[in-house]
Each structure stands twice: as C-alpha cells, then as structure tokens.
C-alpha cells in the first residue's frame, strides 16, 4: 500500500493525535473521529452530576480522570513527537497540564481541522467499492458514514471499566462503584469504604479517600502489589487505611474476603479492577475479541496489525510502562506499512504469531515480564520503522521512577528527582 491514501483514526486522545501527526507528516490524508466535543481522550475530565452505581451502567461516561489526578510518570518519558513538555511544567504533570499540552500539539501539527468531533464510532464494514488489489473500509459513526483505505483504532483500553464477576457482589446493598466514575474524596466523607484492586487506581484512590472517609479497606490478591512496598498495620491520612485480601462475595453490607475475613457495615465498595476497550470497538474488528486477560483486543500481529487485514490496526493493545512512547513507535510502524516501506509476513504467519503472542500475555503475568515484553515490542517496531529505539536515558528514568514509587508511594511525585 502506497502513500496518498485516506486513513480514518478513531479517537483524538494522545494515541490518535500522535498517530495523526505521524501519518500526516508521511503525506496520508487523515480524518480523526472523536466521540466527545473535545480532544484529549481520557485526559479530558468529564464532570459527573451524580454518583454512579456500576449496576446502573456507565453509558455516556468516557473518561476516568478526576480533579486531583497527576501523572505517575515524569514528563521526560511522556513525549509527543518533536514537541516536549514545557520546562515550567511540574515533573509529574497534572491532568489539565497534559490536556493543555495536547491542545498545543494539535494546533502545532495543524490537526484540528482533521478532527470530526461528536462522531461516536458505531461500526466497521468492508466497502462495497472494494476491488481486487484495492480494499476499502466503511466507517459508520453517529453522524454518518465514510470510506477509507485504512483504519487505526486509537480509543485505548482506558475507555471502559473492566469488571470482575459481578454475581457474588450483587447482594451488596451499599453503593457499588468502579474507579472509572470516581471524581473526588468528598463523596465518601464519614463513610466506610472498601476498594477492590491495588493497582495504580486502588493505591491512589484509597490514599485520597482516607482524607475524608471514617475507614478505608484496600483489598486485593497479593500478586497485584508488585509496584508497592508491603504495608502492614494502619496508614493513610488519618491512620484509617489498612490492606486486606481480595473480595470474593458480599451479603447486605458485609464484604467477605478470600481468607475468611469479613468487613462489616461497608457503605461503598469501589472496584479498582482496571479498564478495557470500548465494546463498540472490540466487536468491530473481524475475528477478534477480548484477550484472555480481558485487557486488550486479540489476536493482533505485533499487538497492532489485524492478521488478515493489516490495514486495520489498533494502538495501545499491549500494557506498557511508557504509553506515549509506545504510541509514537506504533504510529511509525503503521505509516511504514501503509507507505509500502515495511513488509509483513503472509497472513498465515501473522495469524500464528498473533495467537502465540496472545498465549504468552494471558493470565497473571509478572510485572517485570510485562515490562520486558513492552520494551521488546517497542524495539522491534523501531527496527521495522528504521528509527532509533528509546534512549538509555529514557530507560534509566523509567527504572528510577519505578524505584521512587516503590519507596515513597505517598510523596514520590513531590520529591526532588534523583536518577538512579
């Protein structure tokens, strides 16, 4: 496939903007379809007028960002192509700083006129105008349809809540929430709150909620705490936060844990169980579905290209410690393939490789393995695209940041930076 082709990009968040800038620079005609009236994706906060019980659904909620959110990565490892964060930004930027930077990037790259706002993606179909050697795809959105030579899905795996099996939790008579709709600690003042899951959301939210709640319980399986130093006893803003084993069931306002412990009189149970792609997206790509770990779409060749139709791609479908860096390398690989500079294996080989990759990534994979896999993935894309891989300094900053988060989980964003 050569240049001067029309490419649809679904989503105008960081991945969509980065992909759009790379493809536009490579002389493709790009159109970005954004379901909201603003760019920025999950970085564009969406105020909610009411508290949301997950049992009522989350339709119409598009962002998990809350007012106090700050990056958990230094700005040096969140670069946009040839457009670094300003020097006067804090090392760990606030969500509104990131959003402002994305706006400036879109203006600088002259992308705004290519974005179709309030166009929610609905469906993807092979075009009736497809002919031998010239396959086209029809995009259906809430505002109409269009035909394109290639489609890039950039609506991330942060766009929809990932839920555990809800059946054992449904008897809970308190409010059952997901971190996706969390908007601040004041809603939990004087409440007894349990959180399920101790990834980044569980760790950050439990600490913030402890400023207002009367009691906070952070519950998770032991293997989920690899990025955090073990804590015993009480901690938190008012010495009112403790760690416990994972939630297995609820009855009335009692939360039952896997070791037999029971948490009584719980007012709110918040599921901090991660995110997954939007259902509309995950049903769109032919012969794909949710990965075994329910986090991404699979099978995809190199976690990026559709095995049978490689002009259909999906970014961010691998868990990575440096997503902005990942988006850039994926965009360069997509541009190289569409321009005809990158040759992929045949369809059968792509399918086999995609299925093998999915098997390796399924289940509870150690964090160090996921980290190594993501960097190996980026290095391979860099080699394919003929561009340098991430620098040694970038890798050192990522390693130093992980160490800093482990040693100082409450204050690492405000401590002076020491690399090493």
From TrEMBL:
It comes from the Bacteria. Gene3D superfamilies: FAD/NAD(P)-binding domain. Keywords: FAD, Flavoprotein, NADP, Oxidoreductase. Belongs to the FMO family. This is NAD(P)-binding domain-containing protein. It comes from Endozoicomonas euniceicola.
């Amino acid at each position: 496939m050569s240049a001067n082709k029309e490419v649809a990009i679904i989503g105008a968040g960081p991945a969509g903007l980065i992909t759009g800038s790379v493809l536009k620079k490579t002389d493709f005609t790009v159109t970005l379809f954004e379901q909201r009236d603003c760019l920025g994706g999950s970085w564009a906060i969406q105020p909610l007028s009411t508290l949301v019980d997950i049992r009522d659904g989350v339709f119409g909620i598009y962002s998990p960002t809350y007012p106090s959110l700050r990056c958990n990565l230094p700005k040096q490892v969140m670069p946009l192509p040839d457009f670094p964060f300003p020097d006067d930004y804090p090392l760990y930027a606030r969500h509104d700083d990131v959003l402002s930077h994305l706006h400036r990037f879109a203006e600088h790259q002259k992308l705004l006129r290519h974005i179709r706002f309030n166009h929610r993606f609905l469906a993807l179909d092979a075009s009736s105008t497809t002919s031998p050697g010239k396959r086209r795809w029809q995009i259906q959105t809430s505002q109409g349809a269009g035909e394109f030579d290639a489609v890039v899905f950039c609506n991330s795996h942060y766009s929809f809540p990932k839920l555990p099996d809800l059946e054992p939790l449904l008897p809970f008579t308190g409010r059952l929430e997901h971190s996706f709709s969390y908007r601040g600690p004041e809603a939990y003042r004087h409440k007894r709150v349990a959180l399920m899951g101790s990834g980044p959301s569980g760790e950050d939210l439990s600490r913030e909620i402890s400023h207002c709640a009367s009691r906070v319980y952070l519950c998770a399986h032991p293997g989920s705490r690899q990025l955090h130093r073990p804590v015993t006893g009480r901690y938190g803003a008012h010495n009112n936060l403790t760690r416990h084993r994972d939630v297995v069931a609820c009855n009335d306002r009692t939360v039952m844990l896997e070791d037999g412990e029971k948490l009584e009189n719980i007012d709110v149970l918040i599921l901090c169980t991660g995110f997954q792609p939007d259902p509309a997206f995950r049903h769109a790509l032919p012969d794909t579905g949710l990965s075994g770990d329910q986090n991404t779409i699979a099978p995809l060749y190199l976690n990026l290209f559709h095995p049978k139709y490689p002009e259909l791609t999906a970014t961010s479908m691998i868990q990575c410690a440096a997503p902005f860096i990942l988006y850039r390398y994926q965009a360069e690989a997509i541009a190289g393939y569409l321009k005809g500079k990158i040759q992929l294996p045949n369809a059968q080989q792509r399918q086999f490789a995609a299925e093998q990759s999915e098997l390796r990534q399924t289940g509870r994979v150690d964090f160090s393995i996921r980290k190594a896999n993501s960097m190996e993935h980026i290095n391979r894309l860099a080699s394919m695209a003929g561009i340098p891989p991430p620098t040694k300094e970038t890798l050192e900053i990522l390693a130093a940041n992980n160490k800093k988060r482990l040693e100082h989980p409450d204050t690492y964003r405000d401590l002076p930076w020491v690399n090493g």
